[in-house]
Amino acid sequence: MELDKRRQIKKLKKTLSRNRVDLEYGCDLYEEGKFKEAFLAFQRAAKLGNPQAQVNLGNLYDAGEGVEQDQKLAAYWYKRAIKNGVAEAAYNLARKRGHVRMALT
User: Could you tell me how many helices (H) and strands (E) the chain has, helices first?
Assistant: First the structure.
């Protein structure tokens, strides 16, 4: 039983480390103007549950940077980030819908 628990912890640490690495790598790529590569890095991290990567993915879909613009997918990723407690995602989603005031209160 103890060995199984250690394996689970090791796997969790590896996953958490991977999504953080992908987030940071995506940020670096974005800063370099490599939007498609940044999109792929953010996508990996977002699927692993990284809330900031979920916001960034929403932003890329919203702007059509590195991926075809898709407002539905932007909203989907903003909502996932909102569920993970990211206020920026709520603001971005409200802004898209013209309800910025609501997001600020």
Answer: 6, 0
List the end-to-end C-alpha distance of the chain, in Å, as a whole number: 48
- pLDDT for 31-77, tens place per residue? 999 999 999 999 999 999 999 999 999 999 999 999 999 999 999 99
- In the chain the domains, ranked by start, together with CATH numbers, are 2-104 (1.25.40.10)
Q: Give the angle 53-71-34 at the CA atoms, nearest 5°.
A: 50
Report angle CA 59, 101, 60 to the nearest 5 degrees: 5
Q: Tokens standing for 99?
A: 């309800």
CA–CA separation, 93 and 82 (whole Å): 9
